[in-house]
Design a protein that fits this description.
The chain has helices spanning 2-15, 22-28, 30-46, 50-64, 175-185, 199-227, 252-255, 260-268, and strands at residues 67-68, 73-74, 79-80, 87-88, 93-94, 99-100, 105-107, 119-120, 125-126, 131-133, 137-138, 143-144, 149-150, 158-161, 166-170. The protein has 269 residues and is an alpha/beta fold. A hairpin with a 4-residue loop joins strand 14 and strand 15. Helix 3 packs antiparallel against helix 4 (50-64) and helix 5 crosses helix 6.
Amino acid sequence: MFERIREDVRSVLDRDPAARNAFEIVTCYPGVHALLWHRLCHRLWRWNLRWLARWLSTVSRWLTGIEIHPGARIGRRFFIDHGMGVVIGETAEIGDDVTLYHGVTLGGTSTDGGKRHPTLGNDIVVGAGAKVLGPITVSDGARIGSNAVVLKDVPEGATMIGIPARIAGQRPAGHTERREATARKIGFDAYGQTDMPDPVSNAINSMLDHIHASDERLQEMCQAIRHLGGQLKDVELPDLSCCEMENGNRPAAAKQGVPAEEEAKVRDG
């Protein structure tokens, strides 16, 4: 149990730049509280203690503003950011590494019994206010834009926007992982980036693809030089940081060739 809680805390630290430490997450994040309540309620539901499970889930809704039916199945590293107004229905199924923002509904469209809520795969982001309705399947790596209303199955890697939702773009296989790896390598980490058809996002993605291609060519050139007997030093890229002043290091101006004496004059007024 404690290992799962640590895993949940790490997933929040990875996805929310506002999270500062584990204590803050455990004590102040309603999405984490709702998930812990749900695990208890889901276990009671499976033990056929269903009234108790429903009553405790109601208490959880009062405390967190997040309504998760005890019958819903939720995978690992699930994160609800902000969380107020999130509703997850009884037969909903959620995979691993899924992120929901506030106001999301995983709801049903039928009063009949049986499967009537959506199934979400792995590594999915659902934007604020989005509605995913009915016994549909959202495949791995999909992104649901804010306030979209999804009524049909979503293919792998697709980005859905609009009412009713339509495919705005689809990421080629491997591009997302490659871009994330390149972004981490240069010290860049976009928050909540969903590959929406936005010129800034497109420009960033193009830059990351260009950097990746340039790195591959440089590696091939280095290997060729070594094969011909040349000597090359292995140099690692430094991590970029916007918090150097807080860590006691010299500011970015020093790295751009500004002498330390000039820095001191500017700093001292």
